[in-house]
Design a protein that fits this description.
heterodimer, A: two-stranded antiparallel ribbon, about 0% strand, B: globular, NAD (chain B), quinone (chain B)
Chain lengths: ~475, ~450
């Protein structure tokens, strides 16, 4: 068994979903995503048992491009995140009616396919292809099934597309340049490359453009809030839950090991940008009137901290960043789903139109509360583990980084609880709010279960990712 | 060699069809004939070049590979004619015959071994195009397009001819092998480079590169849509392949000054083409400017002629196949409309999802998004150009790729976000077939790039 099977299943799933017709599409998509989840767990077992799950086949002779998929702990955990969130996301959409559902669900599976490929590819060009392929489905999902005024949505989505494409094309130049140097796109060859200071400088920033736009890191975040707001909730979940992790993962996998000297040189700037994102995101989130936009900015703040963790270049920072990526993925999907639940009943995203829901829907109120608390990194939740580790690593570099980064907890608690108060508490709303249905409960409970389980017992993840992260750090430290 | 003869025979056969009044059968028979010619062409694909008629014609890997591409494109273009000329059924054999002769000119242009043959080829191709441009004789726009193209084109032909004369004056021969051997000697008469430059200018006109591009938008817009398809796919590909062959064979070591000119023309074409395309509302005009910018990209192959012929073949195939698929959709959409404005494409995503998907795919290919042939074309091109150490040129090309997304996506947005303004019109099966086959070939090109890349 090897990892290419998973990609094939997802791709076949996308086509089958399309041909299943509008009525069956969602169920077929769910089925395939569950199969993919099962398969990735099986792959994990095989990997732990020491089996070779990699796939290697020559594809193009000149330039030499290899269809090479490599699974190590880091790739596998990202793969698991992708395949675990996809069924949840698909299942969460069951309460909604979509026009042309077959294309919608087919695009979701296709996007999962591309994202899984991005996490697995170990050939630079193959990785780039998957990276770009993931962009097309989300573009159409946001454009066609999004909400709000068409003209505004169009503007937001096109801006997003051009931004991300522009960033990634610079990454492509960097890869082509590296290819001319080494004659190979394979990651193990690129890890061995010795570049001069200037070359590292250029390549580092070319990569950075691609990743900073995707993550997004300040000042490349301007596309984010609008797209999160305008995209359908499923699209927002895919974007914030999985897609932005592609950028963070790529920093760890490609950027810092290939250009270690530049990464070390710019370490303060990069951590500074990450922390600026934390503070900026939190402050802007405070002033949002639209629930989805508020969550978008809170997400910006969180990923700022993750990015800072990635660039610390020490093991705690890297581990914390990965843990935080996973927990953020689950929590943010849960929060956007909560926003969607409210939208289904009240047909609004304006916080001002909400309030007084708790008395009508106690079950929803408690589930939402747990998600809010997880998002502000309450101890025993998964987020706490990640956030604490990242802050600890920042402290090792400079105490002020940790202090400023720590504002995320304080500010986060402030705006999230304030949001909760305005949305849920207060006098009973005049509009009727039916409590969560069974399938909504299932989604939320599953997410919460994951958050608590790994919050209390993160060891399996640590054990899985530590060897990969050590390997990355060894590569970074090969040139002093 | 036999390919060329067979094509001309097929063209004459087309004219005979009119006499025997077998117009209905013409398109299927021509398509079958062209497939046979394609088989003939493949059988001529050999490692060692063969020379015919005192080196007038040289059949090499290069010429057979490109001829194969031209024949495939012609098959598509002829098949599209089935529906397009529905209302001109009396003249259909003329139109088809002209296209076959155009193909003959194209094949002559890539397999010339003598500048006289080259000029003959270019004239056969151009005259066929002049006729096709004004083939809608009741439309004032088509007449204007034909006349404009003819005036400008004959000017360019004159410049090419003058260049050939100067080269002859300098070298005393039309044979390109002899010229290339002589050009290695130290002492070159000054009119040899002048002749080369004139030839180069004439060819830049034919491929519509800046600053010789002014004819393209008007001619593309005015001509009947199918003729525009011929110009923007077949004619462009032929011209760039010929230019490549001229530069490669006659000018073995390109001087730095000449490289600089190529770089400047390439940058200017990309940038002007893209920026002008952003503002167009007529799809044909937009594709004209997009074609100008693609000409700029293709010119980059001239910077490393020793190795880049495979890249050029790949780029031209990907570009032309995407163009064919796009034009099949445009022909379908604008069949009953007066013009080709973007508004006509509103709501195509709802009315005809398959056609909309195909047009989207072909535009994504032209923009260079992965898995489509266009992406790999750009990748190989950039890789080659970086290898020849023109990193700045590649950076500018990348910035241009980003700009191009702007206008390609304008069309995609129109298809998917606007409401349709007319009821669905039935699609002729042949448009479906051509569009689907062309885009499938384009994607196949993306999945198996080595197949085409290793031909040369």
């Amino acid at each position: 068994m090897n990892v290419s099977l998973l990609l094939i299943i997802l791709l076949v799933g996308a086509f089958t979903t399309y041909f299943a017709g509008d009525k069956l599409a969602s169920k077929v998509a769910l089925l395939f995503s569950l199969v993919a989840l099962g398969l990735s767990i099986a792959l994990l077992n095989a990997y732990n048992a020491g089996e070779n799950v990699n796939f290697f086949k020559y594809w193009i002779n000149k330039p030499t491009v290899v269809y090479s998929l490599t699974a190590d702990g880091l790739s596998l955990i990202m793969l698991l995140l992708t395949t675990a969130l996809t069924p949840l996301i698909i299942y969460s959409s069951f309460g909604n009616e979509y026009k042309n559902a077959k294309s919608f669900y087919a695009l979701i599976l296709f996007m999962t396919f591309a994202m899984s490929g991005t996490f697995l590819a170990s050939d630079g060009l193959l990785y780039y292809i998957f990276w770009e392929l993931a962009l097309i489905p989300i573009y159409f999902i946001a454009l066609i099934w999004g909400n709000g005024d068409t003209e505004e949505r169009k503007k937001a989505v096109v801006k997003f597309f051009i931004y991300t494409l522009a960033g990634s094309l610079f990454m492509l130049i960097a890869f082509v340049y590296l290819y001319q140097k080494t004659g190979s796109f394979l990651i193990q060859d690129l890890y061995k490359i010795e570049l001069t200071q200037t070359e590292q400088f250029w390549i580092f920033w070319a990569f950075f453009l691609a990743y900073a736009i995707k993550i997004p890191v300040i000042p490349f975040h301007t596309w984010q809030a609008k797209v999160y707001q305008k995209a359908p909730t499923v699209g927002t979940m895919l974007l914030s839950g999985i897609m932005l992790k592609m950028g963070l993962y790529s920093v760890l996998r490609w950027q810092i090991p290939i250009t270690p000297v530049a990464s070390r040189t710019y370490l303060p700037i990069l951590i500074g940008l990450g922390i600026a994102g934390v503070i900026y995101g939190s402050i802007v989130a405070l002033r949002q009137k639209d629930l989805k936009k508020l969550l978008a900015y809170s997400s910006l703040a969180h990923v700022g901290l993750i990015a800072a963790g990635c660039y610390t270049l020490n093991i705690d920072g890297l581990r914390g960043a990965v843990l935080q990526m996973l927990s953020h993925g689950f929590v943010v999907v849960g929060l956007f789903f909560a926003a969607e639940i409210i939208h289904r009943r009240f047909d609004t995203r304006e916080i001002a139109n909400m309030g007084g829901i708790r008395t009508q829907a106690p079950k929803f109120a408690s589930l939402f509360m747990i998600l809010v608390l997880a998002s502000v990194a309450l101890p025993t939740t998964f987020n706490f583990v990640g956030e604490f580790t990242v802050l600890y690593s920042l402290y090792q570099i400079n105490v002020w980084f940790a202090v400023l980064g720590g504002t995320t907890i304080i500010l986060g608690a402030y705006y999230m609880l304030k949001m909760y108060q305005q949305v849920m508490l207060g006098e009973t709303n005049k509009k009727v709010f039916a409590d969560v249905t069974l399938h909504e409960t299932i989604v939320l409970v599953l997410i919460i279960a994951v958050i608590f389980f790994f919050g209390l017992y993160p060891r399996p993840i640590n054990e899985l990712i530590n060897p990969s992260l050590d390997q990355i750090l060894r590569t970074v430290n090969r040139i002093q | 060699m036999n390919t060329l003869i067979a094509i001309i025979g097929l063209g004459i056969l087309c004219l005979l069809f009119e006499i025997f009044d077998a117009r209905k059968a013409i398109i299927p028979i021509v398509v079958i004939g062209l497939l046979a010619v394609l088989g003939l062409d493949i059988s001529e694909y050999n490692a060692a070049p063969t020379y015919h008629y005192n080196n007038m014609i040289v059949v090499s890997k290069f010429s057979s590979a490109f001829s194969g591409l031209f024949i495939i494109l012609t098959i598509f273009l002829v098949s599209l004619g089935n529906k397009f000329y529905e209302n001109h059924s009396t003249k259909i054999s003329d139109f088809i015959a002209i296209k076959i002769f155009l193909l003959a000119g194209a094949v002559a242009m890539v397999s010339f071994g003598n500048l006289a043959m080259f000029f003959l080829g270019i004239e056969v191709l151009s005259i066929a195009l002049y006729v096709l441009a004004s083939s809608n004789r009741l439309s004032i726009k088509s007449n204007e397009a034909g006349l404009k193209y003819f005036l400008m084109g004959s000017f360019a032909s004159g410049i090419i001819l003058f260049g050939i004369c100067l080269i002859y004056g300098a070298m005393g021969s039309f044979d390109i092998v002899e010229i290339s051997e002589l050009s290695r000697s130290a002492e070159l008469p000054v009119w040899f480079p002048i002749g080369i430059v004139l030839l180069f200018i004439g060819m830049l006109f034919k491929i519509a590169a800046v600053p010789f591009h002014f004819w393209a938008p008007d001619v593309y817009e005015g001509s009947p849509a199918l003729t525009t398809a011929v110009m923007s796919t077949l004619a462009k590909v032929v011209a760039i392949a010929t230019l490549y062959k001229l530069v490669k064979t006659m000018n073995a070591d390109i001087s730095p000054a000449f490289q600089l000119i190529i770089v400047i023309v390439s940058i200017a074409s990309m940038t002007v083409g893209n920026i002008m395309a952003l503002r167009q509302i007529n799809v044909k005009r937009m594709l004209a400017f997009s074609g100008i910018s693609h000409a700029g990209f293709m010119l980059m192959t001239l910077l490393s002629t020793a190795k880049s012929s495979g890249t050029l073949l790949y780029y031209t195939s990907a570009y032309a196949l995407a163009g064919i698929a796009a034009f099949a959709v445009i022909l379908y959409v604008c069949k009953t409309r007066e013009n080709e404005d973007i508004t006509n494409f509103h709501g195509l995503g709802k009315n005809n999802p398959l056609m909309a998907a195909i047009l989207t795919a072909s535009l994504l290919s032209m923009a260079g998004i992965p898995i489509f042939g266009g992406f790999f074309a750009k990748l190989f091109l950039f890789s080659q150009t970086i290898e020849s150490e023109f990193v700045v040129l590649v950076v500018i090309a990348v910035i241009n790729s980003i700009i191009s997304v702007g206008y390609y996506f304008k069309l995609i947005l129109a298809m998917y976000t606007k409401e349709p303004n007319e009821a669905k019109i039935p699609t002729p099966a042949v448009y479906y077939a051509v569009a689907v086959i062309a885009i499938v070939l384009n994607i196949a090109l993306g999945i198996f790039p080595s197949f085409v890349l290793d031909l040369l």
